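Cross-check.
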Amino acid sequence: MQTPTIDPLNFSVLRVQSLFNETHLAWATGFIYSGTLDDKPCQWLVTNWHVLSGRSASRPMEVLHELAAIPNRILVQVPSQIGPDGNEQLGTLFYHEKFIELYTPAGVAMWYQHATKSAVDIGVINIGSLFMEHLTKGVNELCSEHDMAVEIGNQVFILGYPLGFSHFAHTPIWKRGAIASEPHSETPDSRNRIVIDATTRSGMSGSPVIMREKTHYVDESGTVRQKANASRFIGVYASRPAPVATASNESAEIGLSSHEIGYVFKSGCVHEVIVGGSRAAEYGEMW
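Predicted model, tokenized:
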């Protein structure tokens, strides 16, 4: 069914345009997560809390847009083999624009946040079967090597849209990075996050972060397993830490840029939002 020369993961990642009515506010990234709900197949669109709320996750009182506008809808382009005439055309790739409302006309949120609210910078929208006639599949469904060892120094890819950019159709850019902090250690400050060493830009908020090995991988027991394009979903890219200001301007002296490291919320946080999250605040409200 899918074009064989295109990596299936490219159809799981969507460019997100946040809007206030018809006004563009920002570019971001989202991805499909699949599962079941009430014994029926279901899909969720996952991105960052700050993308859907329009507020800083670390400083929720701060509205991100320079005009203090808060998004009330998003626009995504969904890959499909269904043409403009409504008929399926195998071997041909189309993209359909889909508006997703973030709030009801009464201002009730249609999206969900983590139980800890903005402390986990993930927002989720239940889209049910809305995209299932198209080519979208869940990142968690396609990244099936759940036993792949996740270790500091491992190569990762961030699949997203830097500055809204895409080179082929609407497929994402694969930015290479590496796990730069101990992925299994938790402290009060780590908050289910790991640090990656990668050059990122705005527009990549909400990107899935995956491990990908072309021919073989090492599993959690240390066994080498042969598998072409083995993949594991490890988390959601969220933000870049602010540079640490010092009297001697140490960060500038060592060449550390806030574009070179970033936070990734661990993959389990997505499941936590879906099964135990809470509805986001009403439009214009804080919590």
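The first strand starts at residue 13 and ends at 20. Residues 251-258 have pLDDT under 50 and may be disordered. Passed to J.P. for a second look.
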